[in-house]
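queue> holo job accepted (zinc ion)
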Amino acid sequence: MKICVHLWTKLLLGSLPLAAGSVSAQKSTLLRPASVFDGQEQHAGWAVLVTGDKITAAGPAAEINLPSDARTIDLPGQTLMPGLIEGHAHLLLHPYNETAWNEQVTDESNAFRVARATAHARATLEAGFTTVRDLGTEGAGYADVGLKQAIDAGVIPGPRLLVATRAIVATGSYGPKYSTDIDVPQGAQEASGVEEAMRVTREQIGKGADLVKVYADYRWGKDEPARPTFSQEELNAIVQTARSAGRPTIAHATTPEGMLRAINAGVETIEHGDDGTPEIFRLMKQKGVTLCPTVAAGDATLRYRGWKKGTDPDPPRLQQKRVSMKAAREAGVAFAMGGDAGVFAHGENALEMELLVDEYGFSPLDVLRQATSGNAGLFHLADRGSVRAGLLADLVAVAGDPTRHPAVLREVRLVMKGGVLLRQP
Ligand SMILES: [Zn+2]
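queue> job finished
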Protein backbone atom coordinates (compact mmCIF):
# COMPACT_ATOMS: atom_id res chain seq x y z
CA MET A 1 0.00 0.00 0.00
CA LYS A 2 3.02 2.26 0.34
CA ILE A 3 3.23 2.75 -3.40
CA CYS A 4 -0.42 3.71 -3.53
CA VAL A 5 0.04 6.55 -1.04
CA HIS A 6 3.12 7.73 -2.88
CA LEU A 7 1.34 7.81 -6.23
CA TRP A 8 -1.70 9.61 -4.90
CA THR A 9 0.49 12.21 -3.26
CA LYS A 10 2.08 12.78 -6.65
CA LEU A 11 -1.34 13.06 -8.24
CA LEU A 12 -2.49 15.62 -5.71
CA LEU A 13 0.65 17.66 -6.11
CA GLY A 14 -0.02 17.60 -9.82
CA SER A 15 3.44 17.11 -11.29
CA LEU A 16 1.78 16.54 -14.68
CA PRO A 17 -0.79 18.74 -16.39
CA LEU A 18 -3.95 16.67 -16.87
CA ALA A 19 -4.99 18.33 -20.10
CA ALA A 20 -3.29 15.74 -22.28
CA GLY A 21 -5.52 16.69 -25.21
CA SER A 22 -4.38 20.31 -25.44
CA VAL A 23 -2.03 20.18 -28.42
CA SER A 24 -1.29 23.75 -29.39
CA ALA A 25 -2.28 23.76 -33.07
CA GLN A 26 0.70 23.38 -35.41
CA LYS A 27 3.23 25.15 -33.20
CA SER A 28 6.79 23.87 -33.44
CA THR A 29 9.20 22.95 -30.67
CA LEU A 30 12.93 22.45 -31.14
CA LEU A 31 14.49 20.07 -28.63
CA ARG A 32 18.24 20.57 -28.20
CA PRO A 33 19.82 17.77 -26.13
CA ALA A 34 23.50 16.83 -25.84
CA SER A 35 22.77 13.83 -28.06
CA VAL A 36 19.96 11.87 -29.67
CA PHE A 37 19.53 8.11 -29.52
CA ASP A 38 17.44 7.54 -32.65
CA GLY A 39 16.37 3.97 -31.87
CA GLN A 40 19.56 2.49 -33.33
CA GLU A 41 22.53 4.78 -32.71
CA GLN A 42 23.64 7.70 -30.60
CA HIS A 43 24.24 11.04 -32.37
CA ALA A 44 26.01 13.88 -30.57
CA GLY A 45 24.94 17.39 -31.54
CA TRP A 46 21.59 16.42 -33.04
CA ALA A 47 18.38 18.33 -32.45
CA VAL A 48 14.76 17.32 -33.03
CA LEU A 49 11.95 19.50 -34.36
CA VAL A 50 8.37 18.67 -33.38
CA THR A 51 5.33 20.15 -35.11
CA GLY A 52 1.86 19.19 -33.93
CA ASP A 53 1.98 15.54 -32.88
CA LYS A 54 4.82 14.54 -35.22
CA ILE A 55 8.58 14.72 -35.47
CA THR A 56 9.25 16.95 -38.49
CA ALA A 57 13.05 16.95 -38.48
CA ALA A 58 15.90 15.16 -36.73
CA GLY A 59 19.58 15.65 -37.43
CA PRO A 60 22.60 17.89 -36.83
CA ALA A 61 21.27 21.02 -35.05
CA ALA A 62 22.78 23.41 -37.62
CA GLU A 63 20.93 21.70 -40.49
CA ILE A 64 17.42 22.05 -39.08
CA ASN A 65 15.32 24.85 -40.59
CA LEU A 66 13.60 26.55 -37.70
CA PRO A 67 10.07 27.94 -38.24
CA SER A 68 9.80 31.54 -36.99
CA ASP A 69 7.28 30.66 -34.30
CA ALA A 70 9.31 27.74 -32.93
CA ARG A 71 10.17 27.63 -29.26
CA THR A 72 13.40 25.99 -28.17
CA ILE A 73 13.89 23.69 -25.20
CA ASP A 74 17.52 23.16 -24.25
CA LEU A 75 18.34 19.83 -22.65
CA PRO A 76 21.99 20.18 -21.61
CA GLY A 77 23.78 16.96 -20.71
CA GLN A 78 20.71 14.95 -21.69
CA THR A 79 19.99 12.23 -24.21
CA LEU A 80 16.77 12.51 -26.21
CA MET A 81 15.33 9.22 -27.36
CA PRO A 82 12.12 7.60 -28.60
CA GLY A 83 9.45 7.04 -25.97
CA LEU A 84 10.18 3.63 -24.45
CA ILE A 85 7.93 0.67 -25.25
CA GLU A 86 7.09 -1.77 -22.44
CA GLY A 87 6.48 -5.20 -23.94
CA HIS A 88 4.78 -6.94 -21.03
CA ALA A 89 2.79 -5.23 -18.28
CA HIS A 90 -0.45 -5.59 -16.35
CA LEU A 91 -1.75 -2.15 -15.40
CA LEU A 92 -4.56 -3.85 -13.46
CA LEU A 93 -2.10 -5.60 -11.12
CA HIS A 94 0.09 -4.20 -8.36
CA PRO A 95 3.14 -5.80 -6.72
CA TYR A 96 2.50 -9.20 -5.13
CA ASN A 97 4.43 -8.25 -1.98
CA GLU A 98 1.70 -5.66 -1.36
CA THR A 99 -1.22 -7.99 -2.08
CA ALA A 100 -0.91 -11.56 -3.35
CA TRP A 101 -2.27 -12.25 -6.84
CA ASN A 102 -5.13 -14.42 -5.53
CA GLU A 103 -6.39 -11.66 -3.24
CA GLN A 104 -6.12 -9.03 -5.96
CA VAL A 105 -8.36 -11.15 -8.18
CA THR A 106 -10.91 -12.16 -5.53
CA ASP A 107 -10.92 -9.36 -2.92
CA GLU A 108 -10.35 -6.16 -4.89
CA SER A 109 -13.36 -4.72 -6.73
CA ASN A 110 -13.04 -3.71 -10.35
CA ALA A 111 -13.59 -0.08 -9.36
CA PHE A 112 -10.70 -0.25 -6.90
CA ARG A 113 -8.48 -1.96 -9.43
CA VAL A 114 -9.27 0.57 -12.16
CA ALA A 115 -8.59 3.47 -9.79
CA ARG A 116 -5.21 1.95 -9.03
CA ALA A 117 -4.57 1.36 -12.72
CA THR A 118 -4.98 5.07 -13.46
CA ALA A 119 -2.13 5.74 -11.04
CA HIS A 120 -0.11 2.92 -12.63
CA ALA A 121 -0.64 4.41 -16.09
CA ARG A 122 0.59 7.78 -14.91
CA ALA A 123 3.66 6.32 -13.18
CA THR A 124 4.54 4.38 -16.34
CA LEU A 125 4.30 7.45 -18.53
CA GLU A 126 6.32 9.55 -16.08
CA ALA A 127 9.05 6.89 -16.28
CA GLY A 128 9.32 7.51 -20.02
CA PHE A 129 7.29 4.53 -21.28
CA THR A 130 4.92 6.04 -23.84
CA THR A 131 3.61 2.71 -25.17
CA VAL A 132 2.68 -0.41 -23.21
CA ARG A 133 1.63 -3.86 -24.39
CA ASP A 134 -0.77 -4.78 -21.59
CA LEU A 135 -1.08 -8.56 -21.45
CA GLY A 136 -4.23 -9.34 -19.54
CA THR A 137 -6.45 -7.78 -16.90
CA GLU A 138 -6.15 -10.81 -14.58
CA GLY A 139 -9.78 -10.97 -13.60
CA ALA A 140 -10.69 -7.33 -14.22
CA GLY A 141 -12.74 -8.12 -17.33
CA TYR A 142 -12.40 -5.60 -20.11
CA ALA A 143 -11.20 -2.78 -17.86
CA ASP A 144 -8.10 -2.35 -20.05
CA VAL A 145 -10.28 -1.34 -23.00
CA GLY A 146 -11.89 1.45 -20.95
CA LEU A 147 -8.54 2.47 -19.54
CA LYS A 148 -7.16 2.79 -23.06
CA GLN A 149 -10.18 4.88 -24.11
CA ALA A 150 -9.73 7.21 -21.13
CA ILE A 151 -6.04 7.71 -21.96
CA ASP A 152 -6.72 8.28 -25.67
CA ALA A 153 -9.47 10.78 -24.82
CA GLY A 154 -7.09 12.72 -22.56
CA VAL A 155 -9.17 12.02 -19.45
CA ILE A 156 -6.18 10.54 -17.61
CA PRO A 157 -2.47 10.63 -18.47
CA GLY A 158 -0.97 7.35 -19.56
CA PRO A 159 0.91 5.50 -22.28
CA ARG A 160 -0.60 4.37 -25.57
CA LEU A 161 -1.92 0.86 -24.93
CA LEU A 162 -2.04 -2.37 -26.86
CA VAL A 163 -4.49 -4.48 -24.86
CA ALA A 164 -5.06 -8.22 -24.63
CA THR A 165 -8.26 -7.93 -22.51
CA ARG A 166 -9.08 -11.06 -20.46
CA ALA A 167 -6.57 -13.57 -21.97
CA ILE A 168 -7.53 -17.20 -22.60
CA VAL A 169 -6.85 -20.19 -20.35
CA ALA A 170 -7.80 -23.85 -20.61
CA THR A 171 -10.74 -24.71 -18.35
CA GLY A 172 -9.53 -25.57 -14.85
CA SER A 173 -5.90 -24.65 -15.43
CA TYR A 174 -5.76 -21.15 -13.95
CA GLY A 175 -6.62 -19.58 -10.60
CA PRO A 176 -7.52 -18.53 -8.05
CA LYS A 177 -8.28 -21.98 -6.65
CA TYR A 178 -10.17 -22.50 -3.40
CA SER A 179 -12.29 -25.34 -2.04
CA THR A 180 -13.86 -27.52 -4.74
CA ASP A 181 -17.24 -26.22 -3.55
CA ILE A 182 -16.48 -22.59 -4.31
CA ASP A 183 -16.46 -21.04 -7.75
CA VAL A 184 -14.51 -17.80 -7.79
CA PRO A 185 -13.83 -15.36 -10.64
CA GLN A 186 -10.84 -16.58 -12.64
CA GLY A 187 -7.81 -14.56 -13.66
CA ALA A 188 -8.58 -15.12 -17.35
CA GLN A 189 -11.37 -16.45 -19.59
CA GLU A 190 -11.70 -20.23 -19.69
CA ALA A 191 -12.23 -22.23 -22.87
CA SER A 192 -12.24 -25.89 -23.90
CA GLY A 193 -12.55 -27.36 -27.34
CA VAL A 194 -11.89 -25.85 -30.72
CA GLU A 195 -15.30 -24.21 -31.03
CA GLU A 196 -15.24 -22.56 -27.65
CA ALA A 197 -11.65 -21.43 -28.16
CA MET A 198 -12.74 -19.74 -31.38
CA ARG A 199 -15.82 -18.19 -29.76
CA VAL A 200 -13.83 -16.75 -26.83
CA THR A 201 -11.18 -15.37 -29.19
CA ARG A 202 -13.84 -13.64 -31.26
CA GLU A 203 -15.57 -12.32 -28.16
CA GLN A 204 -12.36 -10.72 -26.86
CA ILE A 205 -11.54 -9.21 -30.24
CA GLY A 206 -15.09 -7.90 -30.56
CA LYS A 207 -14.78 -6.15 -27.23
CA GLY A 208 -11.51 -4.45 -28.12
CA ALA A 209 -8.52 -6.82 -27.90
CA ASP A 210 -5.61 -5.53 -30.00
CA LEU A 211 -3.95 -8.91 -29.60
CA VAL A 212 -4.89 -12.30 -28.19
CA LYS A 213 -3.04 -13.82 -25.26
CA VAL A 214 -3.24 -17.52 -24.57
CA TYR A 215 -1.75 -19.59 -21.76
CA ALA A 216 -0.11 -22.58 -23.45
CA ASP A 217 0.91 -24.08 -20.11
CA TYR A 218 0.43 -23.50 -16.41
CA ARG A 219 0.58 -25.38 -13.13
CA TRP A 220 -2.64 -27.37 -12.83
CA GLY A 221 -2.35 -27.73 -9.06
CA LYS A 222 -0.73 -25.72 -6.32
CA ASP A 223 3.05 -26.17 -6.01
CA GLU A 224 3.35 -28.50 -9.01
CA PRO A 225 5.39 -27.76 -12.14
CA ALA A 226 3.77 -26.16 -15.19
CA ARG A 227 2.35 -28.55 -17.78
CA PRO A 228 0.71 -28.00 -21.17
CA THR A 229 -2.89 -26.82 -21.10
CA PHE A 230 -4.45 -26.39 -24.56
CA SER A 231 -4.17 -29.07 -27.24
CA GLN A 232 -2.44 -28.29 -30.52
CA GLU A 233 -5.84 -28.11 -32.25
CA GLU A 234 -7.20 -25.60 -29.73
CA LEU A 235 -4.11 -23.38 -30.04
CA ASN A 236 -4.25 -23.55 -33.83
CA ALA A 237 -7.91 -22.48 -33.73
CA ILE A 238 -7.16 -19.49 -31.49
CA VAL A 239 -4.21 -18.27 -33.59
CA GLN A 240 -6.04 -18.70 -36.90
CA THR A 241 -9.20 -17.00 -35.60
CA ALA A 242 -7.17 -14.05 -34.34
CA ARG A 243 -5.10 -13.89 -37.52
CA SER A 244 -8.13 -13.68 -39.79
CA ALA A 245 -9.29 -10.74 -37.65
CA GLY A 246 -5.88 -9.08 -38.13
CA ARG A 247 -4.69 -9.71 -34.57
CA PRO A 248 -1.48 -11.42 -33.47
CA THR A 249 -1.57 -14.11 -30.80
CA ILE A 250 1.04 -14.28 -28.08
CA ALA A 251 1.52 -17.11 -25.60
CA HIS A 252 2.45 -17.45 -21.98
CA ALA A 253 4.65 -20.55 -22.04
CA THR A 254 7.42 -21.83 -19.82
CA THR A 255 7.64 -25.56 -20.67
CA PRO A 256 9.25 -27.01 -23.80
CA GLU A 257 5.99 -28.74 -24.82
CA GLY A 258 3.85 -25.64 -24.21
CA MET A 259 6.33 -23.52 -26.15
CA LEU A 260 6.45 -26.08 -28.97
CA ARG A 261 2.66 -26.15 -29.40
CA ALA A 262 2.47 -22.35 -29.28
CA ILE A 263 5.26 -21.99 -31.85
CA ASN A 264 3.64 -24.56 -34.14
CA ALA A 265 0.28 -22.79 -33.82
CA GLY A 266 1.91 -19.57 -35.07
CA VAL A 267 2.13 -17.22 -32.09
CA GLU A 268 4.32 -14.14 -32.52
CA THR A 269 5.88 -13.98 -29.08
CA ILE A 270 6.49 -16.41 -26.24
CA GLU A 271 6.25 -14.79 -22.83
CA HIS A 272 8.70 -16.06 -20.15
CA GLY A 273 10.08 -19.21 -21.84
CA ASP A 274 11.89 -20.21 -18.65
CA ASP A 275 12.45 -23.89 -19.44
CA GLY A 276 13.11 -23.48 -23.15
CA THR A 277 15.70 -25.89 -24.59
CA PRO A 278 18.28 -25.25 -27.34
CA GLU A 279 16.04 -27.21 -29.77
CA ILE A 280 12.99 -25.08 -28.92
CA PHE A 281 14.94 -21.85 -29.31
CA ARG A 282 16.35 -22.99 -32.66
CA LEU A 283 12.76 -23.61 -33.78
CA MET A 284 11.78 -20.12 -32.58
CA LYS A 285 14.62 -18.62 -34.56
CA GLN A 286 13.64 -20.63 -37.63
CA LYS A 287 9.97 -19.59 -37.41
CA GLY A 288 10.67 -15.98 -36.45
CA VAL A 289 9.06 -16.24 -33.01
CA THR A 290 10.21 -13.67 -30.44
CA LEU A 291 11.05 -14.29 -26.78
CA CYS A 292 9.87 -11.79 -24.16
CA PRO A 293 11.88 -13.09 -21.19
CA THR A 294 10.42 -11.11 -18.22
CA VAL A 295 13.53 -11.66 -16.08
CA ALA A 296 12.42 -8.85 -13.74
CA ALA A 297 9.24 -10.71 -12.76
CA GLY A 298 11.21 -13.83 -11.86
CA ASP A 299 13.67 -11.75 -9.87
CA ALA A 300 10.88 -9.95 -7.98
CA THR A 301 8.93 -13.14 -7.22
CA LEU A 302 12.00 -14.81 -5.74
CA ARG A 303 12.73 -11.76 -3.60
CA TYR A 304 9.12 -11.73 -2.34
CA ARG A 305 9.60 -15.38 -1.29
CA GLY A 306 12.53 -14.42 0.92
CA TRP A 307 15.54 -14.78 -1.41
CA LYS A 308 18.18 -12.29 -0.28
CA LYS A 309 19.77 -11.15 -3.48
CA GLY A 310 23.51 -10.68 -3.26
CA THR A 311 23.75 -12.79 -0.07
CA ASP A 312 21.90 -16.05 -0.76
CA PRO A 313 22.95 -18.34 -3.62
CA ASP A 314 20.84 -18.22 -6.79
CA PRO A 315 17.67 -20.32 -6.35
CA PRO A 316 17.25 -23.22 -8.83
CA ARG A 317 14.58 -21.26 -10.81
CA LEU A 318 17.05 -18.48 -11.42
CA GLN A 319 19.88 -20.87 -12.33
CA GLN A 320 17.53 -22.46 -14.88
CA LYS A 321 16.58 -19.03 -16.28
CA ARG A 322 20.25 -18.20 -16.83
CA VAL A 323 20.75 -21.49 -18.70
CA SER A 324 17.70 -21.01 -20.95
CA MET A 325 18.51 -17.35 -21.66
CA LYS A 326 21.99 -18.37 -22.74
CA ALA A 327 20.53 -21.01 -25.05
CA ALA A 328 18.09 -18.49 -26.53
CA ARG A 329 20.90 -16.03 -27.24
CA GLU A 330 23.08 -18.74 -28.79
CA ALA A 331 20.18 -19.72 -31.06
CA GLY A 332 19.88 -16.12 -32.23
CA VAL A 333 16.27 -15.68 -31.06
CA ALA A 334 14.86 -12.14 -31.25
CA PHE A 335 14.09 -10.57 -27.87
CA ALA A 336 11.29 -8.22 -26.93
CA MET A 337 11.87 -6.01 -23.89
CA GLY A 338 9.14 -6.73 -21.37
CA GLY A 339 9.45 -7.18 -17.62
CA ASP A 340 5.90 -8.14 -16.48
CA ALA A 341 5.41 -4.83 -14.65
CA GLY A 342 2.62 -5.21 -12.16
CA VAL A 343 4.40 -8.13 -10.51
CA PHE A 344 6.75 -5.29 -9.47
CA ALA A 345 5.90 -1.59 -9.35
CA HIS A 346 4.70 0.25 -12.44
CA GLY A 347 7.18 3.00 -13.24
CA GLU A 348 10.07 0.65 -12.37
CA ASN A 349 9.95 -0.73 -15.91
CA ALA A 350 13.66 -0.05 -16.51
CA LEU A 351 14.42 -2.85 -14.04
CA GLU A 352 14.14 -5.44 -16.81
CA MET A 353 16.73 -3.60 -18.89
CA GLU A 354 19.09 -3.24 -15.94
CA LEU A 355 18.91 -6.97 -15.18
CA LEU A 356 19.42 -7.92 -18.83
CA VAL A 357 22.65 -5.89 -18.81
CA ASP A 358 23.91 -6.68 -15.31
CA GLU A 359 23.01 -10.37 -15.15
CA TYR A 360 22.37 -11.70 -18.65
CA GLY A 361 25.19 -10.27 -20.73
CA PHE A 362 23.25 -7.90 -22.99
CA SER A 363 24.90 -4.62 -23.89
CA PRO A 364 23.17 -1.36 -22.91
CA LEU A 365 22.77 -0.61 -26.62
CA ASP A 366 21.07 -4.01 -27.17
CA VAL A 367 18.41 -3.33 -24.56
CA LEU A 368 17.86 0.28 -25.67
CA ARG A 369 17.21 -0.93 -29.20
CA GLN A 370 14.88 -3.62 -27.86
CA ALA A 371 12.84 -1.10 -25.87
CA THR A 372 12.49 1.33 -28.79
CA SER A 373 12.84 0.38 -32.46
CA GLY A 374 12.93 -3.33 -31.63
CA ASN A 375 9.60 -3.51 -29.80
CA ALA A 376 8.02 -1.12 -32.31
CA GLY A 377 8.94 -3.48 -35.15
CA LEU A 378 7.87 -6.64 -33.33
CA PHE A 379 4.54 -5.12 -32.28
CA HIS A 380 3.76 -3.69 -35.77
CA LEU A 381 3.99 -0.07 -34.60
CA ALA A 382 5.40 1.59 -37.70
CA ASP A 383 4.60 5.09 -36.39
CA ARG A 384 6.97 5.06 -33.39
CA GLY A 385 10.10 3.60 -31.80
CA SER A 386 12.60 5.77 -33.67
CA VAL A 387 13.48 9.45 -33.87
CA ARG A 388 12.80 10.23 -37.49
CA ALA A 389 10.76 12.81 -39.42
CA GLY A 390 7.19 11.64 -39.90
CA LEU A 391 6.92 9.51 -36.77
CA LEU A 392 4.86 10.32 -33.67
CA ALA A 393 6.53 12.83 -31.35
CA ASP A 394 6.76 10.37 -28.46
CA LEU A 395 10.07 11.46 -26.94
CA VAL A 396 11.93 11.11 -23.67
CA ALA A 397 15.00 12.92 -22.36
CA VAL A 398 17.18 11.43 -19.64
CA ALA A 399 20.09 13.00 -17.76
CA GLY A 400 23.23 11.27 -19.00
CA ASP A 401 23.99 8.59 -21.56
CA PRO A 402 21.74 5.49 -21.46
CA THR A 403 24.02 3.69 -23.94
CA ARG A 404 26.45 3.40 -21.01
CA HIS A 405 23.94 1.79 -18.63
CA PRO A 406 20.12 1.53 -18.55
CA ALA A 407 20.09 2.80 -14.95
CA VAL A 408 20.37 6.24 -16.60
CA LEU A 409 16.76 5.71 -17.74
CA ARG A 410 15.70 6.37 -14.14
CA GLU A 411 16.77 10.02 -14.62
CA VAL A 412 13.85 11.12 -16.77
CA ARG A 413 13.76 14.87 -17.36
CA LEU A 414 11.28 15.26 -20.20
CA VAL A 415 8.38 13.20 -21.49
CA MET A 416 6.50 14.15 -24.65
CA LYS A 417 3.62 12.09 -26.04
CA GLY A 418 2.18 13.01 -29.42
CA GLY A 419 3.86 16.43 -29.24
CA VAL A 420 2.37 17.22 -25.82
CA LEU A 421 4.85 17.86 -23.03
CA LEU A 422 3.85 15.84 -20.00
CA ARG A 423 7.00 16.32 -18.03
CA GLN A 424 9.65 18.97 -18.63
CA PRO A 425 12.77 20.33 -16.98
ZN1 LIG B 1 2.35 -11.22 -17.27
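queue> The two ends are 29 Å apart (CA to CA).
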